[in-house]
Specification:
Elements (H helix, E strand, L loop, with lengths): L3 H4 L12 H24 L8 H15 L8 H12 L6 H14 L2 H20 L9 H84 L5 H30 L16 H11 L4 E7 L7 H21 L5 E8 L3 E9 L19 H11 L3 E6 L4 E8 L5
Parallel strand pairs: 1-2
Antiparallel strand pairs: 2-3, 3-5, 4-5
Helix pairs in contact: 2-3, 2-5, 4-5, 4-6, 5-6, 5-7, 6-7, 7-8, 7-10, 9-10, 10-11
């Protein structure tokens, strides 16, 4: 049986309040102590009952029993007092055993052992003070052994109860800690999912919006564009804007899911889609030189293809924004054993040359940081910076995962 503090009946607002069960247990202890005291009076060797000493024993027994109502709060003190009284008045013996049991439940081992030794000594003193029947002298030692066994059993029972309660508290704390850790893991998983969505949307939307900016800038810069070119540019703008809205609608739907149940449907890409990405960039007027030397390209996994695609997409987007007139050199090589290496290079330019519109898409500064995070999560390496030949280079190595 657990106390109110451990069973859930205890409230922090009133730490001194007892539950109904606590009152019931305390009352039961009082009744048991009274019963033991009454039995002691019945079997006592007093020839003339109802004498003053007899009444004093009754009063001491009743008071000792009633004092058990505060046995939890003053366990050690109460045990010492009842132990002293029981050496003179045997009617306090029941209360002493119960108080010692309570001490074993609520206190540490060292004071419990000391009180147990004192109780055993008190038992010897108690029976030494009682008259011994010369016809049955062995009854003295029998009584001493029985009382000593009762004391030891009470203490052992109390220590077992304490150990069980500590185990329950430990298991409850472990369960609460596991629940907290699970909530943290769920929160971290949701955060990682949102970060993944943010990376995908940044790469996809930045690419499409830069295409929109380039085509819109061309229309603004060349109002006398031939009708067929104008129609083609408008079609590209419409298709790109439509796809951007679809991507944005999907990510908004996922983010609005309260339980994180939504899942962003990533587009399935292969290494063959890189040529389409290059062609989209060329349509904006950017010159792209693309070389691909990949062994067993058809065996590349979907995550690897998607990472290569996103890295290349971000690199081309950055080149359009920061060096719109520069020629971009893109090389991809590798295979199942060596992994894939993607390199993008473009000359560093101060701005767009005469006759070319500016990109017009300001960068948020998260592109390379997002690439670094994506590559790190895939177990790869990212290098970027200015070269000695005055070029900006981005080189990424990605491992080829084994199936």
């Amino acid at each position: 049986m657990l106390p109110a503090r451990l069973s859930g009946d205890w409230t922090d607002d009133d730490p001194g309040r007892r539950s109904a069960r606590d009152w019931a247990v305390d009352l039961l202890c009082v009744l048991v102590s009274l019963a033991i005291g009454a039995l002691t009076l019945l079997i006592s060797p007093i020839d003339d009952p109802f004498t003053p000493i007899w009444w004093i024993s009754v009063v001491i027994g009743v008071l000792a029993s009633l004092s058990l109502m505060v046995r939890r709060e003053f366990a050690v003190t109460l045990t010492l007092i009842l132990m002293v009284l029981s050496t003179v008045f045997m009617t306090a013996g029941g209360g002493t055993v119960i108080a010692l049991f309570t001490t074993a439940v609520h206190r540490r081992t060292r004071p419990v052992v000391l009180l147990t030794l004192l109780a055993l000594v008190s038992t010897l003193v108690q029976y030494q003070a009682q008259p011994v029947d010369p016809d049955t002298p062995q009854s003295y030692w029998i009584a001493v052994v029985i009382d000593s066994l009762l004391l030891v059993l009470a203490v052992g029972w109390g220590m077992a109860v304490r150990a069980r309660r500590q185990l329950v508290v430990s298991l409850a704390e472990r369960a609460r800690r596991a629940e907290t850790e699970q909530e943290l893991r769920v929160g971290q998983a949701r955060l990682r999912e949102r970060e993944r969505i943010a990376r995908e949307m940044h790469d996809a939307l930045a690419h499409r919006l830069s295409l929109l900016s380039m085509h819109a800038g061309a229309l603004e810069f060349r109002p006398d564009m031939p009708e067929d070119q104008l129609s083609k540019a408008a079609g590209v703008i419409r298709a790109t804007a439509h796809q951007s809205l679809l991507d944005l609608r999907e990510v908004i739907y996922v983010l609005r899911e309260p339980d994180g149940g939504g899942d962003l449907q990533l587009p399935k890409v292969t290494l063959d889609d890189l040529a389409t990405l290059v062609e989209e960039t060329r349509q904006t007027g950017t010159t792209v030189v693309f070389q691909e030397r990949v062994e067993a390209a058809e065996e590349a996994s979907a995550p690897l293809c998607r990472n290569v695609y996103r890295v290349m997409q971000e690199g081309l987007t950055n080149a359009r924004k920061h060096a719109p007139a520069a020629t971009v050199h893109v090389e991809l090589w590798g295979g199942p054993e060596a992994g894939l290496t993607l390199e993008l290079r473009n000359p560093l330019l101060a701005g767009p040359p005469p006759g070319r519109p500016a990109a017009g898409v300001p960068g948020a500064g998260y592109g390379l940081a997002g690439l670094a995070e994506r590559v790190a999560l895939a177990g790869g390496r990212l290098e970027h910076g200015r070269t000695v030949s005055d070029e900006f280079r981005v080189r990424v190595w990605l491992p080829w995962p084994s199936e």
